[in-house]
Amino acid sequence: MKNLKFPSAQTILFIIAGLVTLLTWFIPAGKYDTLSYDSATDKFTRLSLDKEISLDASQVSLDDLNINIPIEKFTNGDIYKPINIPGTYNKLDAKPQNFFDFITSPIKGIIEAADIIFLVLIIGGLIGVLNKSGAFDAAIGQLATVLKGRESLLIVLVTSLVALGGTTFGFAEETIAFFPILIPVFLAAEYDAMVGVASIFLGSAIGTMCSTINPFSTIIASDAAGISWTTGLYGRIFMLLLCLSITVIYIMRYAKRVKNDPTKSLIFDQRHEIAELFALKDSSNINFNWRLKLALFIFTCSFILMIIGVSMLDWWFIEMTTVFLVGAILIGFIIQISEAEFIETFVKGAGDLLGVALIIGIARGVTVLMTDGLISDTLLYYASDITTGMNKGVFAGSMTMIYSGLSFFIPSSSGMAVLTMPIMAPLADTVGVGREVVVNTYQYGLGLFYLINPTGLILASLAVAKINFSKWLKFIMPLFILLIIVTLTVLAVSSYL
After folding, report:
1. Cα dist. 287→138, 293, 399, 401 in Å?
2. Over the stretch 125-154, which tens digit does the pLDDT of each residue have?
3. Structure pTM?
């Protein structure tokens, strides 16, 4: 029994894919009609059992379909994905996925997730080129000296800044780029890699869970619920500050314990492997000249430009990936390495993150199985029936748990919003609470399960530092339970206000 090891991230996802394949044989198939807006023709398209119907893009059309959303939300681009139409669920002939569907799902997932996979690989190449120069090692060495005696500030700053990105523009997939960069900084501060992973991942998770002006969750969900995104804003700000404070304190307590006694680290048995993985060169022998400083400046600017582009310029994966590719080329010129050496270094750096990229693709394959098996809408249909007749506090808690469960099958925040909110938001009217309560339960439900959701980003994040999922579960469970209690308490109280 002692020789038994918890499966790798890839194996966990394959097991989940197998279980989902089996579920498609037992969960009835079904689908809602969907409504989408075409800005080119200024028309709605209703898709019903493979039959397309064109409708006038007007408030009358929306009212006729019992969709309580202002027409402007479609025409101005706030709602840009097809939404489910309430009351249109239809049972369909079962479409169980077979063994061939199961074994091809990872390939389909990798193809569907090609955008984020290429982003990860290009970032790996960029980091490889920068590491070749020695600029990164020299900078970390200087930073460790500056932080001497004040290492806890690193946890506060990293977690808070990443959370700020999460709450404002959904900083999630982009955080993959920061793990190989910041984990060596935490190691230099005499923490373990778990502290680095936790500060980055939990910062993003808490920020997106308590999104305030995030267009990919708060705004699109509020629009789909037919309310202003400012409704309930102060409550979400309160939750952000509360949950972030709890999380930072939790990480700092663990970090202090590890710093005082390294054997208390949950990954103490991997210390040599991780140290070798993120091994820093002796920076005392590196001449931190203007070329290395300029290379580091270009590297930093690449991330700043990415954040500005995503939050203000409607950039997405193509633009982000291009920024990092150009950044790598510029750094290559600055540090004056040959073309052949640049290509070799870049490819090796990309290869270092290939395992992370594959995990992302395999996780997307699980979603492919659920979509092709037509079970996602069935789960939504039955989930919407559960809350009938509940009192306010129980309703809020139940909706949070329902959304946590649904997030396993629909991990995309924007996808979850447009698919579920037209169905779930009217349920608030039947129990006498504001629709912002449903928006909040959607955010908090997704955010809580995101901390342990294997079809989310946690497995890819852990893979960067070679940390096993079982170690993460041991680390996160006390915080996970505490956040559940806090969230359900706050929701129950707020539903009566």
Report:
1. 8, 10, 58, 55
2. 887 888 777 776 666 666 666 777 777 888
3. 0.76
pLDDT tens readout for residues 448-470: 999 998 878 898 889 888 899 99
Sign of CA dihedral 377, 224, 391, 449: positive
Task: Measure the CA–CA gap between 330 and 262, rounded to whole angstroms.
Answer: 40
Per-position DSSP letters for 32-44, written without gaps between them: --EEEEETTTTEE
The angle, 0 to 180 degrees and rounded to 10, between the axes of the packed helices 233-260 and 435-450 is: 20
The CA distance from 430 to 451, in Å, is: 31
Question: Domain-by-domain residue ranges, the chain?
Answer: 1-31+104-497, 34-88
Euclidean distance between CA atoms 170 and 215, whole angstroms? 8
Residue with tokens 């993460």: 472
Return all residues near 439 (Cβ < 8 A) that are at least 6 apart.
218, 221, 222, 225, 227, 231, 232, 421, 425
Distance, in Å, from the CA atom of 357 to the CA atom of 364, rounded to the nearest integer, reads: 11
Mean predicted lDDT score pLDDT of the chain? 85
- CB-based contacts of 143, cutoff 8 Å, min separation 6: 185, 188
DSSP state, 313?
S
- Other Cβ atoms less than 10 A from the Cβ of 389: the count is 8
Residue 40 has pLDDT above 60, yes or no: yes
Dihedral over Cα of 284, 287, 288, 292: its sign: negative
